[in-house]
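If your schedule permits, I should be very grateful for your opinion on a structural question. I have a record of one protein: its chain in single-letter code and its fold written as discrete structure tokens. Kindly check, if you would, that the fold set down in the tokens agrees with what the sequence suggests. I remain grateful for any guidance, and I place the record below:

***
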Amino acid sequence: MRCQYCMPEENYVWLPRQSILTFEELSRLARIFGVLGASKVRITGGEPLLRHELHRLVSQVRAIPEIEDIALTTNGLLLARHAGELKTAGLDRITVSLDTLRPDRMEQFSRTPHHADLFLDVRVPPTKSMAVARREVLDMVRGLAERFPDFGIEGEVYVTAPGAEIEEGHELVGAIDGAHEEVFGEVPGRDVTRWFSDASVLTRYGIPTVNYGTSTGLMDVELGENLEIDGLVRTAEVYARVAMRVCAAG
């Protein structure tokens, strides 16, 4: 696949091999986070199944006593080929992420007729017109119902309130500010969350939450979301420092 939002047709810059973390480096990070209290690991991408012998990474993470759950996010194209070895290596869960179930639309933006034929829920960014989003989602549902009349497919459109909510004086905000300044040399900027997130689910129940990380925001339609490895590694260091601060305070 060469999806337009992450792999433009021309001038695509491939990362040099030495800039990509090895399985040993990735599992070491997972082990460090495990010692600091993390119990779940999700392997994502790009498309993680393009990484040669990915099951080796799963096996290495599975060997970490503190890690209780290992999940994988994939577009599903290579899943049938690798599902068995991934399960044997210790993978617990899989999330299949697709942008559409209509073959014509899939081929239009992915530049390939190949696609995984699966049913998924839909999340709509608040930058899209609700009227347009509602029409397109319900059109998709009707198309699925016609294609699979025996499955009892139904659709529902609802609106969520995206974003995390936390007091500026909360100890977690202070820990993030301090750790970020130590690593990056300045306190992190503030922004409004543009997408529905796990944090916003907790917010609905009055639980203070914060979204933090390296991101380009809304993806460029041609360049996609291109993040430097150095920025991701330094952000991971911030996570570790924040965990140490919070655990020490507790």
Remarks:
- The first strand starts at residue 40 and ends at 43.
- The chain has three domains: 1-98, 127-159, 162-250.
- Residues 127-159 form one domain.
- The chain has a mean pLDDT of 77.
